[in-house]
Amino acid sequence: MEVFEPWRLILAAVLAGFLHFQVLCTSDVAPNYTFMQEATKAPAVAYYDYIIIGGGTAGCPLAATLSQNFRVLLLERGGSPYGNQNITNLATFTNTLTDKSPTSPAQSFVSEDGVVNTRARVLGGGTCLNAGFYTHADPEFVQKAGLDLDLVNRSYRWVEKVMVFEPQLRQWQSAVRDGLLEVGVLPYNGYTFEHIYGTKVGGTIFDKDNHRHTAADLLQYANPSGLTVLLYATVHRILFKTKGQSKTAAHGVIFKDGAGNEHRAYLSKETDKGSMGEIIVSAGALGSPQLLILSGIGPAQHLKSLGIKVLLDQPWVGQGMADNPLNVIVVPSPSPVEISLAQQVGITRLGTYIEAISGIDFVRFFGLTTPTNETTPETTKSALETIERLQNAGMIGEKTIGPVSTGYLKLRNRNPDDNPMVTFNYFKEPEDLQRCINGMKIIEGVIKSKAFSNFRYPNDTVETLLNMTQNLVKNIQPQRSNASTFESLEQYCKDTVVTIWHYHGGCQVGRVVDHQYRVLGVDSLRVIDGSTFIDSPGTNPQATLMMLGRYMGIKMRNERLGRYDLD
Ligand SMILES: *[C@@H]1O[C@H](CO)[C@@H](O)[C@H](O)[C@H]1NC(C)=O
Ligand SMILES: *[C@@H]1O[C@H](CO)[C@@H](O)[C@H](O)[C@H]1NC(C)=O
Ligand SMILES: *[C@@H]1O[C@H](CO)[C@@H](O)[C@H](O)[C@H]1NC(C)=O
Ligand SMILES: *[C@@H]1O[C@H](CO)[C@@H](O)[C@H](O)[C@H]1NC(C)=O
Ligand SMILES: *[C@@H]1O[C@H](CO)[C@@H](O)[C@H](O)[C@H]1NC(C)=O
Ligand SMILES: *[C@@H]1O[C@H](CO)[C@@H](O)[C@H](O)[C@H]1NC(C)=O
Ligand SMILES: *[C@@H]1O[C@H](CO)[C@@H](O)[C@H](O)[C@H]1NC(C)=O
């Protein structure tokens, strides 16, 4: 055997060189993408086969895939995530999330329900801001969406190859896992991306050095000569044309660059590639319905009230908005905790998922401020004590599945930079409230479990912790009870509801788009992102959004070129 060793090495070297050569020839390396530039450098008018609006979780994989065969323009309203240390490092997760500056990658908004929330404004979208948990959709979601299972599998794997890692559970996360098992969230399924009942460890987009990888990394798959990515490009309107008897078709967009100059991009005229290209809106659950409305597709009454000419009266645009409630309990710990974001999940049969994070900057996360001389000595003392206790703490939360309760979105004005008004109607339906209560009881069980005992002060009862958390969460719901002391789980769920940032709806499948994500009633326009969802897929949507971008890229390519292969 030893005799063959040098030959194997040479063969391996030749092969590695060949593969390296292949990769360099066909792709750019992040972050030095040659195809990425600020929109100020774009020409006033340009033509492409596909125009994608929104370089987020779904838009990046879609653009990378279509660029292999077509000329693609990807328009992103924010900047690049590369070089921003807040985004790159796990430990500064809360820095980005709470950055409220006008150019922050995290645009904050407050729903009409009074719950503070965030939308991504950066290339890579929510993958630049989130807690990184990577897990597949539940089988029911895939079945209801009518997706091709083989292509779903391949598309997930395409994502996993470049940006998904196995997390290393340390002391605090391990105690939560063992606590979940102790209270009966069984079986233990180990490390898996599959959505199955029980407790499991999922994937993460943070690597072993705790550096974040984002959907922008999927642009490494792009064909550099087929793709143009423009940053700080805000689309104001989609342009339509009506020719003869045929349906109205999307054929271009108007966007402004960072200096406020206007540009237009149009779909190329018919080419050797057969039919016309398309415009794809991947601007997220707030941005996509907003842009359809700005372009004249939406409820006629609402369009008229904004002074927008009605192109298509579509009452469902902006309907079915939903945000999965998150309710948490914060637990100060007597033993040191690691800095960790979501690494595992309890998938229960009670309509609730349990996740946990530890060691983050909770003071910043909850927006606590150091007391001033305006407050009384007693409140100052108690506030300082709480801040002290949060220095070494963890937080266990439950996400209500679905949810059943939904709301709607309307625009305040015609400014595409402004947040729309959105109402989620948290816990309007009793089923959601019951699921939250079920989840809180499981968390109570974990906190009281033997496995978790090193991470809770023995003198802190669950009621003390509920009371403390209730005073930390500062949403501004008008219906919020003003009691500062814990009363009941039902009241607690309502009063301390926050977001897990998995809001969806507004352009739902079957209502605004068909099962191929084509906008009903017009040609050459699709919406591909979380706004099409009826329910949030699996426990966390990012894997499925990236899968969907890849999946639809392959579907659209095959449709246009008459191909059948799935890679
Ligand atoms: C990207 O470009 C910068 C500046 O030219 C260089 O320092 C860096 O090494 C490059 N990164 C990669 C991954 O090639
Ligand atoms: C990092 O976060 C801090 C706190 O939110 C903010 O002040 C700073 O500007 C951020 N840095 C970057 C590069 O965004
Ligand atoms: C998809 O992958 C899972 C495992 O990752 C496997 O169980 C399933 O059979 C696959 N489905 C198809 C249609 O390939
Ligand atoms: C608190 O301090 C500010 C500035 O130092 C001062 O103007 C204000 O009068 C003080 N308020 C009280 C209640 O002492
Ligand atoms: C429990 O003990 C810790 C550590 O001494 C203390 O900070 C905390 O306030 C105590 N909790 C209660 C409810 O007294
Ligand atoms: C709580 O207090 C606020 C402000 O004082 C008030 O507007 C609101 O109606 C109160 N909520 C309840 C449920 O009493
Ligand atoms: C609940 O918390 C509030 C504010 O920190 C405090 O005033 C109150 O005494 C606490 N109640 C209980 C039962 O711990």
UniProtKB/TrEMBL annotation:
Cofactor(s) needed by this chain: FAD
Domain Glucose-methanol-choline oxidoreductase N-terminal: 120-143, 284-298
InterPro entries xref list: FAD/NAD-bd_sf, GMC_Oxidoreductase-Related, GMC_OxRdtase, GMC_OxRdtase_N, GMC_OxRtase_C
List of residues binding FAD: 122, 235, 501-502, 530, 541-542
Signal peptide (from-to): 1-25
Molecular function terms, GO-annotated: flavin adenine dinucleotide binding; oxidoreductase activity, acting on CH-OH group of donors
Disulfide bond residue pairs: 436-493
One Pfam family cited in the UniProt record for this chain: GMC_oxred_C
Annotated keywords: Disulfide bond, FAD, Flavoprotein, Signal
Family recorded in the similarity comment: Belongs to the GMC oxidoreductase family.
Protein's recorded name: Protein HOTHEAD
